[in-house]
Amino acid sequence: MSHEPVRLYGPDFQSDPAGLFESMRSAHGPVVPVHLDGDVPAWLVLGYRELHRVLSTPKTFGSDSRRWNGWAGVPQDWPLMPLVFPVPNIQHAEGDQHRRHARVIDDALNGVEPYELRQVTTRIADRLIDSFCASGQADLRSMYAHRLPALVLCWTYGLDDDRGDALTTMITTMLDAGADSQQAYTELSAALHQVGQERRAEPGADVVSRMIAHPAGYSDEELVVDLLAIVAAGQQTTADWIGNALRLMLTDSRFSASMAGARSSAGEALSQVLWEDSPCQIHAGRYAVQDVELAGQIIRRGDLVLLSLAAGNRDPRMRPDGGSSGERGNKAHLSFSHGEHRCPYPAQDIGETIANTGIEVLLDRLPDIELALPASELRWRPSPWVRGVASLPVTFTPALPRGAH
Fold first, then answer.
1. CA-to-CA distance for 232 and 228, rounded, in angstroms?
2. To 10 degrees, the CA torsion angle through 174, 60, 44, 29?
3. 259 Cβ partners below 8 Å, 6+ apart?
4. Which of 134, 224, 236, 286 is paired with 198 by a 20 to 30 Å CA distance?
5. 310-339 b/e with 16+ CB inside 10 Å = b?
C-alpha cells in the first residue's frame, strides 16, 4: 500500500474526482495522505465507516481550526484560507459554544414558513425562466440553477435581487479557491456586516433579524461569520444540487426519455445525485485532538483531516452493487454530513424545497429541454470543496413569458 501523498489539486482532480477517489482508495485504503494547493499536508477520509467515526466523535476529531499543527507552513495568500481560518462560527465552534450557535441558526431558519417558501420559489423561478424562455437556448447553470437559490435565500434574509446576485458572485469566487478567493471572502464579510447593521437598525420578518433578536445575544462578529457560513453553504450546495440533478436528467436514459413527465422524477434525480454526484465534495475539516489511529493510519495531534463526503457515499464496502438498484428514499448518504455538525435540519428542508420546486417549474415550462453539446464535453467547477458543472447549455422550443400569455 502506497504512502506517498496524493496531490488534491490539478486537472485530474477537477475533471474526474470520482475516478481519482477510487484510485486513491485502491492505493491507500479509506484514509489517504494528501497535499493541498501549495503542498500543504492533510489527511483525506474516503471510507463511509471512517467518516462516520470522525463525524461522530468530536472529542477525538475537533472542529476548531486553532488546533491545526500546520499553520506555520501555510502562506498568507493561500487560496484555501477562507475555509480553515479560525473564526467564531458554527463550523469551528465546539461543545457548548457549538450548541449555542446551532440553537440560533435552527430557530432563525425554522421561522421560514414552508408554504410561503414554495410560493416565493415558484415566483422567482418563473421570473428567471421568463428572462430566457423566448430565446430557445440558455445556460441553465448561470441563468437558473445558480441564481434561483441565491435569490430565494436572499428573500429569506430580506435582501433584494441585486444584492443576491452580488453575494452569489463573491461566494462562487471564494469557493472556487482561486487567486481571488481571499479578496472575495473579505468583500463578502463586509457585505454581510452591512446587512447586519441594517437589520439591527430596522428589524424585519427575516432570518437575519431573528438571529439578532435571539436570546443568545450574538455579537456583530458572530452574526457576520455565521451568516457567511449558512449563506455560502446554502446557496452553493443547493445551486449545484439543482445543476447536477438537471445534468443527470438530461444525460441518463433513466430520466432523459421521460423529460416531459419529469415532475414525478425530479425527486428521484435529486436523491440519486446526493449519492452519485454530491454537491458537497470535500468538507474541511477536522483536527485530531490527540494522536489517533484511523484505518491503519496514524494521525498526529493537530493534523488536518478532510472529509470526502462524496467518496464516502460511493464506498464499495457499503454499496457492493454500486447503487445500481437505486437510492430513492435511502437517506443514509453523508451529503448533509452527520453528527452534531451536520447541516441543520431546517436548512436541509429549505434546500430541498428550492431544488424540487425549481426543477418542477422549469420542466413544466420547458418540457423539451435538451443538452446543447455532447455530455462528454461538460466541464466541472475547479473547486475542491463543491461539485458542480461549470455550465449547462441547453436548447428547447421557444416559449412566451408568463406575462405574455
1. 6
2. -160
3. 249, 250, 363, 367, 368, 369
4. 236
5. bbbbbbeeebeeebeeebeeeeebbbbebe
Pick from 5, 2, 9, 4: nearest CA to 382: 9
- For 27-68, write each residue's pLDDT tens digit: 999 999 999 988 899 999 999 999 999 999 999 999 999 999
- DSSP three-state, residue 188: helix
DSSP conformational letter for 285: E
Name the residue type at position 196: G
A 10 A CB-CB count for 157 gives 22
**Which pLDDT belongs to residue 13?**
67
- The rounded percent of the chain whose pLDDT value lies above 70 is 92
57-85 pLDDT, tens digit each: 999 999 999 999 999 999 888 888 888 88
Residue 382 Cα to chain centre, angstroms: 14
Preceding amide of 285 cis, omega within 30: yes
Instruction: Give the cell for residue 294.
Output: 484511523
Nearest-5° Cα angle at 243, 351 to 309: 65
For residue 331, is pLDDT > 80? no
Q: What is the mean pLDDT of residues 100-114?
A: 96
Phi and psi for 286 in degrees, rounded to 5? -125, 160
Cβ-proximal residues to 247 (8 Å cutoff; 6+ apart), any chain: 277, 375, 378, 389, 392
Beta bridge partners of 299: 292
Q: Are 360 and 266 in contact (CB under 8 A)?
A: yes
The conformational region for residue 146 under phi > 0 = left, psi -120 to 50 = alpha, else beta, is alpha
Give the H or E element holding residue 87. Answer: none
Evaluated on CA atoms 100, 236, 310, 292, the torsion sign reads: negative
In which order are the strands placed within the sheet that holds 370-371? 137-139, 393-395, 370-371
| Per-residue pLDDT band at 177 (split at 50, 70, 90) | low
CB contact at 8 A, 67 and 94:
no
Residue keyed to cell 484510485: 23
Question: From CA 45, how far away is CA 61, in angstroms rounded?
Answer: 12
The residue-averaged pLDDT of 325-330 equals 55
For 228, the enclosing helix (H) or strand (E) is helix 220-251
